[in-house]
Amino acid sequence: MKISWHLSIIFRDKSRQTKYTMMKVVMTILASMLACVVMAQHEHASTAADTLKKSIPKEVHAQVGQAHLMLYYHAPAVRGRMIWGGLVPYGEVWVTGAHRATAWEFNRNIVIGNTTIAAGKYAIFTIPGKEQWTIIINRNWNQHLADDYDAKEDVVRINVTPQNIAALQERLAYGIKAQSDHQGILTIRWEKILISLPFTIKP
User: Fold this and answer.
1) 58 in the same domain as 47
2) Residue 140 burial class via C-beta count within 10 angstroms: exposed 0-12, middle 13-18, buried 19 and up
3) pTM here?
4) Are the C-beta atoms of residues 199 and 106 closer than 8 Å to each other?
5) Are 16 and 64 in a shared domain?
6) 3-state secondary structure string, 66-120?
7) 78 and 68: one domain?
8) Model confidence over 136-157: pLDDT tens digits?
9) Structurally, how many domains does the chain consist of?
């Protein structure tokens, strides 16, 4: 009787261990499947967003030292079109985005070239050229395209040299990169062109 009782306990314990092991295996498989589904959904969403024909609203937030800088713009896509000298003419003021003027906001005074710009919100315009671009910072940030653009509202104009990039940038992309606590670079990428604008945070 004692032997039978001991055997019953042993088999019962082994049965519990087997069930526990099986549950761990099943849970591991389910977790792996769920992770794959989540990854697939993320990639699908990214691909779908990149095939949209309309210009996508975007924001950029960056910190350079004590300064917080923000960009608000609409990003058009190439979609097989001729951009420079085609969709975007050379020698004309361009909104450098779509729909509305691109807005650049910062909470500290900055310096571009030799010009100090007070903290606030401004519009970014450009005049593209084959060899040289003009970047314009304008006071009137709240306007449709360049319809209401007025050169009298310009805070600064500065000429920069466009750089050619190998990889196609399908959708217009702005960026702000800190070089130090007092210096940063604003970048504009589209198609196979890169525009860079260095700036300094005024102490």
Assistant:
1) no
2) middle
3) 0.74
4) no
5) no
6) CEEEEEEEEECECCCCCCECCCECCCCCECCCCCECEEEEECCCEEECCEEECCE
7) yes
8) 999 999 998 888 899 999 999 9
9) 2
